[in-house]
């Protein structure tokens, strides 16, 4: 089989896998669009279920929804299940009496990232207390232990390092002369890559389940977590990667000197699919169109394998090999390939970063963006050292570049560590929100107002009115409006609907961040109205 036909076979296999992969509906880490009950809402009667509506497909197998009463006692909640579509989670609730309740939720978005949050709601119109302090007492958005989170990042790094060393050293061992292929350093590097790929993938599978369930070390070994992972896209791809690692190990045991057609086709297809398992379980999997960005990420990883894998092989080669006859031709071939691989890595990396972060206007606002800037600096150092290496190769010969190539390989390992950390970070800053709860008083009236989730866009507002003297007499009606003079935004009416005696609710839209003036007009009786006002900060 010719080189071009082998490439087309591998590409066809990858496109086939990508074509049948489920296409997510949105991008990046999932965010909670809305909930029922809404955050800070005041209800006349207890809800029968919790509904969480996200802006992206989420993994129901990894979802957890917890409910606590006002004293912090956990209440029995049914197992989360899929709602109307892949972006909705629901869970049945027991009968709830009057009082304050807190919801703590966790799940994973389709690209494998764990997301969490919390909100409070109230049943009845009594004094619910400080909701912020209540949620803080519950450990709102609780996370896995710091050891599990750090270990998960380390496991991803080990897997990345493994795929680069295994495929990169294998590629250059096959493409170079027999002398490099038979070096002890090359064989050790290839097998080290295989072990790292296998161990890193197994640990990633176990630690991902532990992190998704907010557990500690013991959660890594919980068979229930493993079973949940097998029900997710990320879990299936990691298991596929482990199976491909076994296949690559079997092919490796037959020897890198093989020239028969079946061995080479099998090695190419297994290698490309192993790379695809990384692209399918990261940020690229939730971009749109998914297949295009996964293919771009695949090309990016392929360039990294060619470049960094070659640096490792040649950097660890013996002095005797560099002084041999075949070294000049092998290094010249690597130099030519790098001249293609490095621009490919740079261009695909820039395109992906632009897509994932939605432009570079606020790149330093996220941990992902700050890590990206450090990565750019390291890659620039790599390219700079590569330029020195190329100059030395042209002026001082092959034997002079061994140490600079090794230095490049070490810098490449640091880049892979950054990449492993970036995979667990969101490229886009979460939309800021700050719920509002306050008491407005005027003309002997007291109005308890809550607005949530408290962000730019649509919000839910609840107004509970206590007439003068604390009487239970019903007021005639209520309406509200919001304005932002500093932003030049005139008053916008808010329609309030009666939910019960002196309890009104509605939807209020804040088109921009800033300090908004909220005015509530309470019609105490025909011809008598009281104006209450307060400032609502919207982040």
Residues in helices, as a percent range: 40-55%
* Backbone structural class: alpha+beta
Quick one: overall form?
A: elongated
**Tally of separate helices:** 13
For the largest sheet, list the strands in their spatial order. Answer: 2-9-8-4-5
Kindly estimate the percentage of residues that lie in beta strands according to DSSP: 15-25%
In round numbers, the mean pLDDT is 84
Task: Report the radius of gyration as a whole number of Å.
Answer: 29 Å
Number of strands: 18
N-C termini distance: 61 Å
Describe what you observe in this structure.
Helix 3 packs antiparallel against helix 5 (184-212) and helix 5 (184-212) packs antiparallel against helix 7 (233-253). The protein has helices at residues 3-20, 131-137, 146-175, 178-181, 184-212, 223-229, 233-253, 261-279, 290-316, 319-322, 327-357, 367-396, 402-423, and strands spanning 32-36, 42-43, 49-54, 58-69, 74-75, 81-82, 88-92, 99-109, 114-123, 436-442, 445-452, 457-466, 477-484, 489-494, 496-500, 503-510, 514-525, 528-538. 45% of the residues are buried. The strands form 4 sheets. A 5-stranded mixed beta sheet has the order 2-9-8-4-5. Strands 10-11-12-16-15 form a 5-stranded antiparallel beta sheet, with no helix packed on it. The protein is elongated. The chain contains 13 helices and 18 strands.
